[in-house]
Amino acid sequence: MAVDVLIVGAGLAGLMAATTLQENGLTVHVIDRGRSVGGRLATRRVGENGLADHGAQFFTVRTSTLQRYVDRWRALDLVYVWGTGWSDGSLKRTISDGHPRYAVRGGMNKLAKHLEQGINISIDRLISGIRQENGGWELYDSGGKSYAANGLIMTPPMPETLELLTASGVHLNADDDAALRRIRFGPCLCGIHAVNGDVDLPEPGAMQNFQSDVYWIADNQAKGISATRIITSHANAKFSRQNWDASEADIIRALESAVQPFLKPGANIVQTQLKKWRYSVPLTTHPQECLLAQDLPPLVFAGDAFGGRGRVEGAFLSGIAAGETMAEALASLS
Ligand SMILES: Cc1cc2nc3c(=O)[nH]c(=O)nc-3n(C[C@H](O)[C@H](O)[C@H](O)COP(=O)(O)OP(=O)(O)OC[C@H]3O[C@@H](n4cnc5c(N)ncnc54)[C@H](O)[C@@H]3O)c2cc1C
User: Fold this and answer.
1) Does residue 231 contact residue 271 with C-beta atoms inside 8 Å?
2) Model confidence band, residue 1 (pLDDT cutoffs 50, 70, 90)
3) Confidence of residue 182 (pLDDT cuts 50, 70, 90)
4) Same domain, yes or no, for 193 and 279?
5) What CATH code is carried by the domain that includes residue 221?
6) How far is the CA of 153 from the centre of ligand 1 (A)?
7) H helices of the chain, where?
8) Does residue 111 sit within a domain?
9) For the segment 224-277, what is each residue's pLDDT rounded down to a tens digit?
10) 140 in Cβ contact with 132 (< 8 Å)
């Protein structure tokens, strides 16, 4: 089916871009290589009754645009306040700073599942080629299927987008290319630990300490998304980079030893799964909320690395900005 705009990526930015374009009366097709929508809004099933958020853990709100959506999501009981601050792990008590940290009922991925309703999406399709065609764009997936549209929005982490454009022979204007190459992401080694017994994480069930190699440890059961005790651990970008190529057993050992002090006597880790996020959060961002490529058919870059905020709120706002920018670019052609 021919559509007005193709969107690569069904993470938060891609889903918000699609929603915005549809509100502007345009047709879209969102394509994602994942087995589900959501991208880094990722929730994994562990065993029969366990769930773990292993990408984004919570989100904060600093803009009225996101606040309006969050008010709606809270009225639907989709989103709730998980806490208003974290302990650094050295204290038994969590100090509240008064700012809500929001989580999603059933796991962060459920937010993407909510937003995907009414959008034309294909999952499990890896886009492997891009080319200009008839003043618009043609995409190819790894299965050989092609997709065409007048406009294209790219939302994968920028290093992946640039790799794909280069491999496809699509050349950006020198200024755009330089600006996009300045965007950098940090990696994250993540442990998903099934625990037998109780843990001793401070209320509301997490510790955050940026001085530690493993800076985040959270209890998905205390969070309210898992029926069984599943702990998520995240190593910081420096540790993750240094240990990226270590053996899986060594990485798991390091993550487990960070979790160990938070287990109550008698509790033990029964299994750990490792997830390696090569691009977890942006370390260097682009100042604009999205970028319309110069000297090419309508092509907009978006995602959490745009707008200077990073994170869930950055992806959300960038997606909306990309949808609006693309709608204007297409209108100016007709
Ligand atoms: C470990 C970790 C912890 C985090 N913690 C937090 C947190 O606590 N709070 C917070 O606010 N944020 C957090 N974040 C960041 C947050 O998850 C992201 O900012 C946000 O989800 C990014 O959304 P996005 O749409 O920009 O990108 P993504 O969610 O990455 O979406 C991009 C999509 O593009 C798809 N894609 C890529 N290449 C292709 C291709 N060639 N073909 C087809 N599809 C493709 C991917 O499958 C993906 O679904 C965390 C992220 C990670 C990984």
Assistant:
1) no
2) low
3) very high
4) yes
5) 3.90.660.10
6) 15
7) 12-23, 64-75, 109-115, 158-168, 174-181, 220-223, 237-243, 248-259, 311-333
8) no
9) 999 999 999 999 999 999 999 999 999 999 999 999 999 999 999 999 999 999
10) no
264 CA distance to ligand 1 centroid (A)? 33
Rounded Cα distance between 125 and 184, Å, is: 25
Tell me 244's DSSP state: T
Q: What token pair was written down for 298?
A: 């309508």
The pLDDT of residue 334: 79
The conformation of residue 3, written as its DSSP 8-state character, comes to: E
The per-residue pLDDT for 92 is: 74
Q: Is 191 in the pocket of ligand 1 (CB under 6 A)?
A: no
Query: What is the domain range of residue 292?
Result: 1-37+116-183+285-334
Query: Is any ligand 1 atom within 6 A of the Cβ of residue 86?
Result: no
Going by CA atoms, what residue is nearest to atom 50 of ligand 1? 56
Measured CA to CA, the distance from residue 65 to residue 58 in angstroms comes to: 18
Ligand 1 centroid vs 197 CA: distance in angstroms? 32
Looking from the CA of residue 40, the nearest atom of ligand 1 is: 29
Q: Tell me which residue has its CA closest to atom 31 in ligand 1.
A: 11
Distance 309 CA to ligand 1 centre (A): 14
- Distance separating alpha carbons of residues 25 and 209, to the nearest angstrom: 46
Q: 305 CB less than 6 Å from ligand 1?
A: no
Domain end, chosen from 261, 283, 305, is at 283
Domain count, the chain: 2
Nearest CA among 182, 122, 130 for reference residue 153: 130
